[in-house]
Amino acid sequence: MVNVKGGTRPPWVGLGAAVWLQIASGNAYNFPLYSHSLKSVLGFNQQQLTMLGVANDIGENVGLIPGLVCNKFPPWVVLLIGSFSCFFGYGVLWLSLSQTVQNLPYWMLWIALCVATNSSAWFSTTVLVTNMRNFPLSRGTVAGILKGYGGLSAAVYTEVYSALLRNSSSKLLLFLALGIPALSLLMMYFIRPCTPSLGEDSSESYHFLFVQVASIVLGVYVLTTTILEDVFSLNVVVSYTLLIIMVVLLMAPLAIPVKMTFYPSNRGKLGVSDVSVQDNSSAENSEPLLTPLSSSANLGSFQEGDEISEVDMLLAEGEGAVKKKRRPRRGEDFKFTEAMVKADFWLLFLVYFFGVGSGVTVLNNLAQIGIAQGLHDTKILLSLFSFCNFVGRLGGGVISEYFVRLKAVPRTVWMTCTQVVMIIAYLLFASAFNGTLYAATALLGVCYGVQFTTMVPTASELFGLKHFGIIFNFMSLGNPLGAYLFSGLLAGYLYDNEAAKQHSATCLGPDCFRVTFLILAGVCGLGTVLSIVLTMRIRPVYQMLYAGGSFRLPQSSSH
């Protein structure tokens, strides 16, 4: 028996809870806030620090195991594993940085950081897959909202770091080790599969608009308060008041289910509280995150169950009981192994790799980039990147959803456009002209965010939702791979060489990262070319999926 929550209200409760967990999943963005303390207290050089940044990105983005686990277990199990990962990983880092336990080996801290930030993969996989399945006709919008809040998390943590923790790196690590698991335990009950709405509902678009506006207000608020706290010396009472207002804004999406409770629609009254669905293909009584549900109509248990032997299937085909299996077409549900043999799968992976891999290099070294160009306090720079990253994620989802429904424009068009702008941003970084640092950071933040919210729905539209968890997480490997190649091997090496020329541990001047930025500009040039090729290849798929201005579920293959 698979218990699926019915009614129109539970999906919105889940989305409101998912917002908090997406903020929690952004814990990896805190690395620039405590990286300088790791360097000074523990005596690391820049290359060692950069490799810790690689560990940070590997943990955050290697989600193949969460992608597999979410097919077998209910969401609360996946979230519980992420909570333990967060507690133990950040706990070890806190013990080392606070000198509670001294002389921990570098390799242990590297692994601890991987484990800590891997909680992001467990959290984000759960909320993203569950909510995209709960709102299957609004994939771009849902991905934009959730990824937008995830991008905004760095600014939220910066506010907590400044107002509540008073700029203490050790207190921040303790907060991450205890606070995030507590939040996950509090919210896990509300993240659950619900009966999806497959019809057009005008109120749904207004609800999504409300959440988007609420997220924009939150983004502007945290950026403004961060600047105010940097410019003025605010007392404790004012700082705590600003923090409480931020928490209230984070609760805004929950206003939708509250409104639906007091003012239920006629459509909502038709729903039932719980729906029991008998799954004939499985004898398990667990509540899987990804039920064996096709994106379209299926042909019964022969086609849904993965446990039927090949011999039984061949006999059934010979007797005419079922149609012979065919390979899925783009737009249908793919198994992971079937998707991997498709050229579009690898084109999408490479385009995403070049975009986010180059962007995360700047993010990991943002504090050092600011210091090299004469900026002593890099909190505003980090908040600016975070806010623009949020704008790119939210805007990328909204704009791509609008044009895909209006003219069936493939979402990858926006990956192409933003990678062109990223080339300009890297050239601005390399020039190091006065006033270009903030402009380049803002441009890069927006474009970096767009890469996320176009890849996520694109992967689901090309290869289906049935195995979306593992497909999405495989695509996400482009982030740590890019961090290792472009940040760990390239940027860190060039930085230390330039610092050695200056006979200092800290490199100053535009030459510290200039060559790195020029190489990253070339990388995005290659990504632009591949993105154009991918867009041309998948345009017919989008014309089929969005003919008539709305998403149409394709005829699924027999699996």
TrEMBL record:
Source organism: Solanum stoloniferum
Highest taxon above the source species: Eukaryota
The name this protein goes by in its record: Nodulin-like domain-containing protein
Membrane topology: Multi-pass membrane protein
CC annotations in GO: membrane
Keyword Hydrolase on entry: no
Chain ranges passing through the membrane: 76-95, 107-129, 172-191, 206-224, 236-256, 345-367, 379-403, 423-450, 470-495, 515-536
Family recorded in the similarity comment: Belongs to the major facilitator superfamily. Phosphate:H(+) symporter (TC 2.A.1.9) family.
Record Pfam families: NFD4_C, Nodulin-like
